[in-house]
Amino acid sequence: MRNRNKILTAAAVGAVFTLALGGCTNSENGSTSSGESGSTSNGDVTTLTFWSYYTAGSQAEWLAAQVKKFETDNPDIKIDVIETVGDQQDQKLLASVATGRGPDLFINNIVVDFPTLAAAGVFADLTPYWEKFADADEFPEASVWKDGDTVYNLLPYTNLLGMYYNLDILGEYGITEPPATLEELQADMEVVTADGKYKGLALSGAPSVEGAWLFAPQLLGEGINYCNFDGPKVGEAFNRLDSWASDGFIPKAAATWDQNASWQQFMTGKYAFAFNGNWQLGGLEDVAFKYGTAQYPKPEDGFSQVYPGGEGYGIGSQSEHPDLAWKFLEQAILTPEAADAIFTATGSIPTRADATDSAALQGDFVKPFVTAASDPGSWPKNENTAKMQNALGTEVSSVISGQKTGDEGAQAAIKNIADAAAGGGC
Question: How far is it, in rounded angstroms, from Cα 176 to Cα 378?
Fold first, then answer.
């Protein structure tokens, strides 16, 4: 057994809340706005519309604070935050192109809807603004979404996966450093589960995008993504998952767990490890055991990389004041101060590189997620991305539950992801 010689320690960070879709408060008076789209002018004040599906909560409060500060600094510009419904946002944006009543600014589910919105002409071209933006080099390539060479959407903050571990359990078995590789993780799980007192890994294996998101980094670390999903490495990853389930390192029930359910299991103190996201950090304040965080374990000869989640920020193609809309993004969303504020308010990780200089982002608990945000995986630019994820999640679940072998799951995933892509681009 390895006896590694260092354990991560850290201080807790502020509470993290997951996104709930719904209304957003008006930045000026706290009321919910449901006004019409499009810019308006009233004397010396220009009003820009911002479609947001943030509900009354930490994201909405952060956005309202950023809007208020921007309006204070720019009294000739008002930002009217208009309530939208998250699962209706795409159709509303698409319809706005036909009606000519689109917003000046909006947020969108960038992973799923970018190709569709770009193809429909919803986005304004941000390329000239981005090329002149003095801080563009602070943002990784994965946060700048393009169609060809044209910049349309920006990802200023993200949510990512990492590994949590129970220090009390590891210490009981003489494991003095968290596993850095998948092979080391497997060895540690063998040790902590051998006497039946504890369980190995809590993760979501649901037959959905959640199960896919938790499993995909094992292939990303081999250079395999949704655009080149094939080859013997896919089989190796699925067979490893099969062995983890067969050996009892992960329970068969994980085939139905979403991320919240798997987190609740880790919180019981019976699991040595968990794969989950930075948004869970706030839930560790009153935990009954000592814990730590690390990056998602890498393959033996690979690297640690995870997919980013988060909101895209765009300017509407029909905005009459795109220069003012860009001014808002530049001053209220893309600054180091905004990056620090979004982490403090919600726990989301800024994609901006120099935001890591913030004291709030220096803690050891959050550091693995900050590191992951500096070089995340790239999602396919395909309107069927959600179908591709569901195809992977379905096979992950079937292997964990024992319905399929690793080889069967791998072959089905290869075929079904290719079918789901439907020849679309990446």
Answer: 33
Pair 15, 280: CB distance under 8 Å: no
Residue 273 identity: F
Q: How far is CA 375 from the centre of its chain?
A: 13
CB 178 within 8 A of CB 7: yes
Contacts of 34-42 with C-beta under 8 Å, sequence gap 24+, read 34/82, 34/83, 35/80, 35/82, 36/101, 37/82, 37/96, 37/101, 37/102, 37/103, 38/101, 38/102, 38/103, 38/104, 38/318, 38/320, 39/104, 39/319, 39/320, 39/321, 39/324
118-130 pLDDT per residue, tens: 999 999 999 999 9
pLDDT, tens digit, 9 for 90 and up, residues 15-44: 332 333 233 333 333 333 444 566 666 668
Tokens of 71: 């309006």
Q: Report pLDDT for 283.
A: 76
Return the number of other C-beta atoms located less than 10 Å from residue 33's C-beta: 18
Q: Sort strands 349-350 and 157-158 into parallel, antiparallel or unpaired.
A: antiparallel
Question: What is the number of other CB atoms lying within 10 angstroms of the CB of residue 210?
Answer: 23
Q: Which of 80, 29, 28 is nearest to 51 (CA)?
A: 80
Tokens of residue 84, six digits = 């939208």
**pLDDT beneath 70: ranges in the chain:** 1-43
| Fold agreement (40-154+309-373, 161-307+382-421) | yes
- Residue among 336, 333, 332, 377 at smallest CA distance from 353: 336
User: What value, to the nearest 5°, has the Cα angle with vertex 217 and ends 214 and 220?
Assistant: 150
Domain boundaries, the chain: 40-154+309-373, 161-307+382-421
pTM score of the predicted model = 0.83
CATH superfamily of 40-154+309-373: Periplasmic binding protein-like II (3.40.190.10)
Q: Per-residue pLDDT tens for 220-275?
A: 999 999 999 999 999 999 999 999 999 999 999 999 999 999 999 999 999 999 99
Q: CB count, 10 Å around CB of 31?
A: 8
What amino acid is encoded at 110 in this protein?
I
The Cα–Cα gap between 258 and 205 comes to 7
Query: pLDDT (tens digit, 9 = 90+) per residue, 320-340?
Result: 999 999 999 999 999 999 999
Give the span between the Cα atoms of 375 and 49, in whole angstroms.
33
Question: Is CATH 3.10.180.10 correct for 161-307+382-421?
Answer: no
Give how far Cα 352 sits from Cα of 83, 151, 356, Å: 27, 17, 8
**Tokens 């869970």 -> residue:** 280
